[in-house]
Amino acid sequence: MSTSSEGVCSSAFVHPTALCDAGCSVGARTKIWHFVHVAAGASIGADCILGQGCYVAPTATIGDGCKLQNHVSVYDGVTLEAGVFCGPSVVFTNVSHPRAHVSRKQAYERTVVRRGASIGANATIVCGVTIERFAFVAAGAVVTHDVAAFALVQGVPARQVGWVCSCGVPLGEGDEPSCVDCGRRHRVCAGALEELA
After folding, report:
1. 97: left (phi > 0), else alpha (psi -120 to 50), else beta?
2. Which of 4, 60, 107, 139 is buried most deeply by CB count within 10 Å?
3. Predicted pLDDT at 2
4. What is the pLDDT of residues 84-107, one digit of tens each?
5. What are phi and psi of 186, to 5 degrees?
6. Can you tell me the distance from the alpha carbon of 52 to that of 20, in angstroms, rounded to the nearest whole number?
7. What separation, in Å, do the N-terminal and C-terminal C-alpha atoms of the chain show?
8. How far is CA 132 from the centre of its chain?
9. pTM of the predicted protein model
10. What share of the chain is helix, strand, coil (3-state, %, to 5)?
11. Contact (Cβ atoms closer than 8 angstroms) between residue 21 and residue 39
């Protein structure tokens, strides 16, 4: 395989087996590892890591500081904001009703993963949803609806089972849980969690 330098920042690392098509954009200090394919038109921010076998589609956008472990495909219509983590083999979709014999390229649905969210290994994110900031999707979950900020979801289909701190640690019960790891204080109000100053 070959690597094109067009659109790839000079301080980025691209493994010799990776393919970055002309017309893609790769930010400073980003690391692109074995057998990754970044398509023309794709946009990847600075300080990202893309593990072995990842794919980034032409209209996909990956923000600064994202980490994609091995074999994650970010398809057309998917946006990952800054600081998103995707575990190995996370699956994104872009069409609700796929058929091999029916072309639905004009029906791609937008999927957004907001800043700081984490998605565990082998989770599936059905197109058209928004995962809000600092949410945590457990490994193997199938997300079919929007996920609230700081929500911890798991299962098939994914259901909220608690809250997490922005540092990623699950929070305890109550209306004002504190994080046992970083000490941040929170308030649960009207079904939403907010961090307190």
Report:
1. beta
2. 60
3. 39
4. 999 999 999 989 888 999 998 888
5. -140, 165
6. 14
7. 50
8. 11
9. 0.94
10. 0, 35, 65
11. yes
